């Protein structure tokens, strides 16, 4: 899941823009992607690189809500841990 998708673009772009895109791609090779999920419903809102900081306006397509998110607070979200109860064996008669 930490791969960058590549698309085949049909329109030609100027060489300067192409050079900037190639440099950006090389810089991003060593970075990892992380998921930003909606804090209300858990829907995947966006994928960002590990070096991103600051605030961002997020729009959830599922909740239809837009709200600001501090990316520093959502950097290391722990997965929801479910309490595992010991399963008792059923008594047979």
Describe the 3D structure.
With 93 residues, the chain is α+β, with helices and mostly antiparallel strands. It has a domain at 31-77. The protein is built from 1 helix and 4 strands. The protein has one helix at residues 15-28, and strands at 33-37, 44-49, 55-60, 65-70. A two-stranded antiparallel sheet has the order 1-2. It is elongated and about 80 Å long. The protein starts with 14 loop residues before the first helix and ends in a 23-residue tail after the last strand. The model has no long low-confidence stretch (mean pLDDT 79).
What integer is the average pLDDT? 79
Q: Report the biggest beta sheet as strand number plus sense, adding barrel if it closes.
A: 2 strands, antiparallel
> Structural class of the secondary elements?
alpha+beta
Number of helices in the DSSP assignment:
1
Reading side by side through the largest sheet, how are the strands ordered?
Answer: 1-2
Oligomer: single chain
Shape: elongated
- Report the portion of residues in β strands: 15-25%
First and last CA, distance: 50 Å
